[in-house]
Amino acid sequence: MSTLLSLRNLVVRRGSRPVLNGVSLDVRDGERVIIRGGIGVGKSTLLMAALGLVDHISGDIVLMDYPCSAEADFVKARKDIGLLFQDPDDQLIGPTVLEDVEFGPLNLGWTPERAHRAADDALTQVGIEELAERPVHELSGGEKRLVALAGLLAMSPRLLLLDEPTASLDESTASRILAILSETRLPMLIATHDPICIEALSTRSVYLRNGQTSLD
Fold it and tell me: Per CATH, is 1-80+188-216 categorized as 3.40.50.300?
């Protein structure tokens, strides 16, 4: 079973305070690993640091067999990894749903035709093809989360990093998100405290406390 993400003794500080203080964690192909912990313990920071979106002071990060330290290293690995932000407004940038979902594939260098096909397929996969021409700013919070997820799936990722994927959603939309994620069969690293999400997706979980991970 190949290792897709490996963190060793990762240290991240916010000012003088260590948020992550020696975190070690692996995600292997076929796994869906849950990061549990209270509010403010650094779950979101861990996801961001794993992709080089937050600087780390020390420690080792290996993504898709690439040892990553400089930004150029992370750029090579990020094309295979999809990050779902907790707030979809931090993620959506296209004027319409279709244009937003096409953005990621185009950014990977795909042709417009290939990007358009991938976006159409992803919108169908999450069941929102009827929203394709809707302006993003007119969408509900749940619809925005679905569009953000479609944008990740359109890029054919090998690994998903999900930050509270069911937070602030009604029961119906949360169930829909979990069903879509389960059906993808993709490996995942998921920051959540939602017991329904944990039950639906987890193959194992770790607990983040005092800046370190331990078995849950």
Answer: yes
C-alpha to C-alpha distances, 38 to 22, 46, 115, 161, 193, nearest whole angstrom: 18, 14, 39, 18, 8
Which residue from 163, 100, 170, 164 is spatially nearest to 140, judged by alpha carbons? 170
Task: Give kind and range of the element (H or E) at residue 212.
Answer: strand 212-215
Contact between residue 197 and residue 189 where contact means Cβ atoms under 8 Å apart: no
CB-based contact 213:207 (threshold 8 Å): yes
Which parts of the chain fold into alpha helices (H)? 43-50, 71-78, 97-107, 112-126, 141-153, 171-184, 195-201
Q: Which residue has the tokens 């209270």?
A: 38
Q: How does pLDDT run across 30-63, given as a tens digit for each residue?
A: 999 999 998 899 999 999 999 999 999 999 999 9
For residues 171 and 179, the answer to whether their CB atoms sit within 8 Å is: no
Each domain of the chain, given as residue ranges in start order, spans 1-80+188-216
The pTM of the full predicted model, rounded to 2 decimals, is 0.95
Extract the tokens encoding 178.
């979990």
Evaluate whether 54 touches 48 at the Cβ level (below 8 Å).
yes
Tracing tokens 């397929």 back to the chain, one arrives at 121
Q: What's the first-to-final CA gap in the chain, in angstroms? A: 22
